[in-house]
Amino acid sequence: MLIAAAAAPTDAVPAVLLVLAVILIAAKLVGELAERIGQPAVLGELTAGVLLGPSLLAIVDPSLPWLHLFAEIGVIVLLFQIGLATDLRRMLSVGGAAFTVAVVGVAVPFALGYAVCRLMGLPDLESVVAGAALTATSVGITARVLSDLGRLDDPESQVVLGAAVIDDVIGLLILAVVSRVVVGGTVSAGSIAGTTAAAFGFVIGAVIVGRLLVPPVFGLLARIGRPESLAPMALAVGLLVAVLAHAAGSALIIGAFAAGLAFQPTVHAPAIERGVTRLGHFFVPVFFVAVGAAVDVRTLGNARVLAVGGLLILVAVAGKVVAGFAPVWFRGRKLVIGVGMIPRGEVGLIFAQMGLAAGVLDPGLFAAVTAMVMVSTFIAPPLLKVLLGPRRGVRSDPGGPAELVTEA
Fold first, then answer.
1. Please, which residues have CB within 8 angstroms of residue 130's CB and are 6 or more apart in sequence?
2. Statement: residue 21 has pLDDT above 90
3. For the whole model, what pTM was predicted?
């Protein structure tokens, strides 16, 4: 089997290359098919992952270390791209709304998920872990959908991106607390405050320092080097900031996003974005295929799994949609915000896998949480497509003028 060959340490390179080729071909073909039927390409890439995963064709094993590495690089590149395309001033202008959506979007799904599990007779700790899996939005998936639709500049999208980043940080905080509870560790107000300060402080500090250092340093690089070198150098900075974020107790993707924000206002941002986007065409689909491959469709035939999973899906969707309506003063389309916050993606899977590895979640409850992650991840792209309408944006060719794009 391809999975076994790609996992073997001896002569694994040909098998790894073959799996990568299959991933890219499937991602592009199914992604194109999704666009032909009016859906974002990311939905096709996720579907390709499910088809290639262990539960169906068994070509892609998302647990392989090298594939996990490629997927992590993919989501880091994606968040760096999103940071480059995000106007921080516009995001801050909706900061109150974003913060409100994030807090409500964490608290309500957690409470509903916990209550559902307790009503189904599950123990307290299992209910806590399952509820925690409902909290954090997958900023990578939401950002990709908005980018595919050419809607990153919409006020609603700015709220969604800001809220997704904030609740990703809150999700990391919850993950740290829950993991300590699972292993029997102690949780104090001081440790929670320290983790929170480290997460938010890093993003703020990285953006401030970056905006002071990036213009003069990259202005010098532009004068003494070739224009083509700016993108790889900027991405290298993004990778370093991601590593620093991880060392500071935050997430790699938060560091990459912060680095992109630091480059966004510079005159070199368009050239950097073009170069990074080309690299993203290789790495980013690998991430979404890996997320799709982590879904085991075979577990969905159990009645208990379907019952618990169905209830978790309902509260997962309802909790985020309610959060979209939380900033009552915001005049934009609140339903778009709520739907944009729905996908859990890799974030929910991290919680589920942590609970399974610690023995807190049995295979049935793990499957139910996985079903919630799968459905929440898959329903958001088509719903956003319906709510936001035709794709719009600017498509520019490096060798030619930009042109306005509007696609059905």
1. 113, 114, 117, 122, 312, 355, 361, 365, 368, 369
2. yes
3. 0.69
5: in domain: no
Q: What would the pLDDT profile of 278-288 be if each residue is shown by its tens digit? A: 888 899 899 88
pLDDT bracket for residue 407 (50, 70, 90) = very low
Question: Given a cut of 60, is residue 9 above it in pLDDT?
Answer: no
Q: Mind spelling out the 3-state secondary structure of the chain?
A: CHHHHHHCCCCCHHHHHHHHHHHHHHHHHHHHHHHHCCCCHHHHHHHHHHHHCCCCCCCCCCCCHHHHHHHHHHHHHHHHHHHHCCCHHHHHHCHHHHHHHHHHHHHHHHHHHHHHHHHCCCCHHHHHHHHHCCCCCCHHHHHHHHHHCCCCCCHHHHHHHHHHHHHHHHHHHHHHHHHHHHCCCCCCHHHHHHHHHHHHHHHHHHHHHHHHHHHHHHHHHHHHCCHHHHHHHHHHHHHHHHHHHHHCCCCHHHHHHHHHHHHCCCCCHHHHHHHHHHHHHHHHHHHHHHHHHCCCHHHHHCHHHHHHHHHHHHHHHHHHHHHHCCCCCCCCCHHHHHHHCCCCHHHHHHHHHHHHHCCCCCHHHHHHHHHHHHHHHHHHHHHHHHHHCCEEEEEECCCCCEEEEEEC
Residue linked to tokens 């990036």: 214
What is the total count of domains within the chain?
A: 1
The b/e string for 335-372 (b: 16+ C-beta within 10 A; e otherwise) is ebbbbbbbbbbbbbbbbbbbbbebebbeeebbbbbbbb
- 219 or 88: which carries more pLDDT confidence? 219
What is the span of the domain harbouring residue 335? 63-390
> Each residue of 37-49: pLDDT tens digit?
866 677 788 889 8
Q: Is residue 408 part of a domain?
A: no
CATH number at residue 180: 1.20.1530.20
Q: Are the C-beta atoms of residues 373 and 141 closer than 8 Å to each other?
A: no
Residue 232 lies in a domain: yes
pLDDT at position 187 is 53
Specify the range with the lowest mean pLDDT, choosing from 8-12, 24-28, 39-43, 293-297: 8-12
* 301 belongs to a structural domain: yes
Residue 252, CA atoms < 13 Å, CB-side half-sphere: 14
The per-residue pLDDT for 319 is: 93
